[in-house]
Structure formats: structure tokens, C-alpha cells
Amino acid sequence: MKRLIYLLMSLSFVAFVSCSDDDKETNKTENGHEYVDLGLTSGTKWATMNIGASKPQDYGNYYAWGETTTKETYNWSTYLDGNIANSDDCGTDKDALKGVTDIAGTQYDAAKANWGGKWRMPTKAQQDELRNECCWVWTSSYNNSGVKGYIVYKAKSSSDKGAKIEDGETPTASYSLSDAHIFLPVAGWCRDGGPDGAGTYGSYWSSSLDPDNTDSAWDIYFYLGYVCDSYGTDGSYDRYFGMSVRAVFK
Fold first, then answer.
1. Strand 226-228 vs strand 216-223: parallel, antiparallel, or unpaired?
2. What is the distance in angstroms between the CA of the first residue and the CA of the last residue of the chain?
3. 16 occurs within a structural domain
4. Domain membership flag for residue 19
5. CA 220, CA 84: separation in Å to the nearest integer?
6. Low-confidence residues of the chain: pLDDT under 70
7. For residues 95, 104, 220 and 172, what is the CA-based torsion angle, rounded to 10 degrees?
8. Total domain count for the chain?
9. Which residue segment(s) compose the domain that 117 sits in?
10. Which helix (H) or strand (E) holds 209?
């Protein structure tokens, strides 16, 4: 009888542990690259690191909008194989992206070209969703790496959705790195030569062209205490800039 009771207790313990493990947030992979489910309304899954990075705190590569490889110089004269001399050529026959309003899933998508599988660059709507539905917590040293940026957590309360938490502030709920999150390092951007602003601000391309300014595309831009959809309010940035790319899929 004692053996039977002990056996039942053991089985109950195993079942409890298994259930707990199933409930724990763990990263899964798509085509060899890790992603996180942040509980977003659209069901979009976000990669845990930038294209070209080997760990979350790495800056990774910089890409001009619509280009899928890196280069030494980022300006109009090198944009799209040098066919565009200046912004006036955007939208003309010199522009390989003439008439294209969103590059997600196309040959001009840096995420698809480099990672394959279901991976795509995020649309502006997907970046807006990330900004509005998650809790953004600034850190000056992600996972003790010394790298600054925002930890973007799956929000635990409605009041934390869209919150921007600076150093020393406290969100409504308690968060730790064991919770579902992605980290967006402040990798800066490339204009002409090497990256500018690395360690100060981050700028990540979306796949969406600005329909009111076709020489520009939408990005998500942030620094300590500030997150928006480009430099300034409701803006976009010249397509030739080299920026980070964080991939998504649905």
C-alpha cells in the first residue's frame, strides 16, 4: 500500500513538473533562427537577434532599404547598385523599386534573403504593434553585456502595454530575463562610412515605403526614454541609410 501511495505521489510530481515546463516561456526556431512569441494581437513572432548577429546583444549588419547585402559606403550614389544618383531619381525608371510600396517577402527583403524560411522584414503595422502592445524597459547593460538598448517584454498587464520604462523606473508588473522578450540594441545607423550613434540610439527598418515621400521608408527609432516610428514624429528616413533589421514571421 505504501509503495502504491509513493508511486502515485511520484507520478503526480512528474505530471506537475511537465506541466510547469510546458508553461515556461522558451525560445523556438524557424529555419535555424530563434524567435519569441510576445503575445501580439496579429500573432507575429519576432526574432531574438538582428540579421548578421550571433547573439541578442550583437549589433549585427546594416542594410539600405531594399538591399540584401552590406557595403562600406551608404549614400545615394551606392544605393541599388549605383543606379540612383540622388533622391530625385526615386520613383523613376532608374529606381529598381519603382511602384513597390512594401518589400516584405520580395527579392529586396533582407530578412528573407539572408535567413530564408518564413522570415520577413516587419511591416510598419507590425512595428507599431510591437511599440504599442509590449512593455519597453531600457537597460544600460543587457544581461551584463555592457550593451545598451530596450528589452521589449510581453506585457503582463494592460497598463504596461506601450510603456517606456527608463532607468530607475518600475513597470506595473515584475519582469525578468526569464520572461518572454526580445532585446533591441542601440546599434545606430550607417551614412557614408561606418555606423553613427552606436551605443546611443537604434534605428530598425520596416518593409514599408512612405507613400507620401517615396525616397523614404518607415523605421522604428529609439533612444533612452523615447520610441517612435522614425526620427521625429510620424516620419520616415532616406532609403539609402544603412540600418538594423529585426526579422519576423507569422
1. antiparallel
2. 52
3. no
4. no
5. 25
6. 1-26, 167-168, 229-235
7. 170
8. 1
9. 51-249
10. strand 201-209
Q: Using CA atoms, how far apart are residues 14 and 61, in angstroms rounded to an integer? A: 44
Q: Considering only CA atoms, which of 188, 155, 185 is closest in space to residue 173?
A: 155
Q: Looking at the domain assignment, is residue 27 inside a domain? A: no
Residues in a beta bridge with 46? 36, 248
Nine-digit cell at 80? 541599388
DSSP label of 120: B
- Res 194: pLDDT: 83
Integer Cα distance of 217 and 47 in angstroms: 21
Rounded Cα distance, 37 and 239, in Å: 29
CA count, 13 A, side-chain hemisphere, 139: 22
The pLDDT score that the predictor gives to residue 195 is 92
Q: Is residue 7 included in any domain, yes or no?
A: no
pTM of structure: 0.87
pLDDT of residue 234: 52
